[in-house]
Amino acid sequence: MAAQMTDAHRRFLQMLMSRGIMEGSAARKAHRHCCEIYKVYYAHDKLDEFVGTINRHLQPLFMQVRKGMAEEDGSAHYALVNLAETEITKMASDYAENELELFRKTMDLIVFSENGYASSTEILNLADQLKTKKMKKKEAEQVLKVFVEDKWLSERNGEYTLHTRCIIEMEQYIISSYPDVARKCNICHSLAIQSQVCTSCGIRIHLPCVRKYFRAQTAPRCPHCNDVWSAEIP
Ligand SMILES: [Zn+2]
Ligand SMILES: [Zn+2]
C-alpha cells in the first residue's frame, strides 16, 4: 500500500521550497524533525521513500523533488523541480529581461568551456553586448551576485559555474538546448558540467565519479574506449 501524505511530508516540502535546495545531511535532519513533530513513523534510511510519497502527490501538479549530486564533492542534494516550465519561465518572474539574457550567455560560456567554469572577466565583457538592454559592468557585477545568492550560479575565486540547484532543475533544458556539447557523465548518467573528458573518445566523467571509479586502478583506463585516462585523477 502506498504511504499516506501526512503533515510531516507537507512540512518537509515547505522547508525545501523555502530553501530552494537542501544538502543531503540537512534533508536527513529535516526528515527526522518533521516525523518527530507530527509523530509519523521514522526510520533514518527511509528518506528516499519519504520523498517518493511526496512525489506521488506532486505528480498531478507537474512537480517533483529530485535528488542530484554536487559536482564539486559528490554530496547528495534535493531540490523541487517544476516539470512544466522551461528555464525561462522558471526565472522570468524574478529577473529583468537583460538579466535573463546575461544569465543565458553565462550559461553558454560555462557549458561550452573545457572545465565547466566562466571567469568574471569573460562574463562582465558580455554586459555591454546585451541585445535586450546593455548593462554597466557595475550593474552586471551586482546581478551576478544575485544569481549566486539565488543559487543559480556558484562562484569560487572569480570563476562561475552552475549551482547544483540549477543543474538539478534545468538538466533537461540544458541537454535539449545544447545537444552538441551537453554530455552526461559516463558513470552516473547525470548531466556533467565540471568534468574530465576522455581525450580519445570524448566521454565525460564528473570529478567525484572519476575519484570513485578509478580509486582502485593504478593505470586508469577509459570505461568506454579502454584507452589510457590521461587526465590527472583528482
Ligand atoms: Zn557522474
Ligand atoms: Zn574514452
From TrEMBL:
What CDD domains does the database record attribute to this sequence? RING-CH-C4HC3_NSE1
Q: What class of enzyme is it?
A: transferase
Q: Which domain of life is it from?
A: Eukaryota
**An example Gene Ontology biological process:** double-strand break repair via homologous recombination
| Keyword set, alphabetical order | Chromosome, DNA damage, DNA recombination, DNA repair, Metal-binding, Nucleus, Telomere, Transferase, Ubl conjugation pathway, Zinc, Zinc-finger
Has the keyword Nucleus been applied to this entry? Answer: yes
Self-association and partners = Component of the Smc5-Smc6 complex.
What is this enzyme's EC? 2.3.2.27
Q: Where is the RING-type domain?
A: 185-226
Q: Does the keyword Electron transport apply?
A: no
The primary site where this protein sits is nucleus
Q: Which GO terms describe its molecular function?
A: ubiquitin protein ligase activity; zinc ion binding
Function, in words: RING-type zinc finger-containing E3 ubiquitin ligase that assembles with melanoma antigen protein (MAGE) to catalyze the direct transfer of ubiquitin from E2 ubiquitin-conjugating enzyme to a specific substrate. Involved in maintenance of genome integrity, DNA damage response and DNA repair.
Name a single GO cellular component.
Smc5-Smc6 complex
**To which species is this protein native?**
Bucco capensis
Q: Which PANTHER family is this protein grouped with?
A: NON-SMC ELEMENT 1-RELATED (PTHR20973), NON-STRUCTURAL MAINTENANCE OF CHROMOSOMES ELEMENT 1 HOMOLOG (PTHR20973:SF0)
Q: Which SUPFAM superfamilies match?
A: RING/U-box
- Put simply, this protein is called Non-structural maintenance of chromosomes element 1 homolog
Q: Which Pfam families match?
A: SMC_Nse1 (PF07574), zf-RING-like (PF08746)
